[in-house]
Amino acid sequence: MKLVMAIIKPFKLEEVRQALDGLGVEGLTVSEVKGYGRQKGHTEIYRGAEYEVNFIPKIKIEVVVADEQADKVIEAISSTAKTGQIGDGKIFVSTIEHTVRIRTGETDADAL
Length: 112
What we know:
Helix content: 10-25%
CATH class: Alpha Beta
Strand content: 35-45%
CATH architecture: 2-Layer Sandwich
CATH topology: Alpha-Beta Plaits
Number of strands: 6
Order of helices and strands: EHEEEEHE
Largest sheet: 4 strands, antiparallel
Number of domains: 1
Shape: elongated
Distance between the termini: 9 Å
């Protein structure tokens, strides 16, 4: 099993969710996060005063999938979240050793 974690622009969330639904992904965790990458934040003007925004609002999506489904999920997120502009985000993939569904006690692939 693989944990696919993606950091994307907030307005792309619904498109990514629909793409993952189309692949049959059943579980998804979404968090509102802040951070920066190469763009290192930006400067904004509010009521005539200029100030720096060091942490950009982003969305973190986490989904655990079977090994054979991971590449399709990565491609779906990548193609759907891409705008071609700086700050599109990143995808991280980790191996999951063991999973347990608390309610039923099912483990690993059955727990997904």
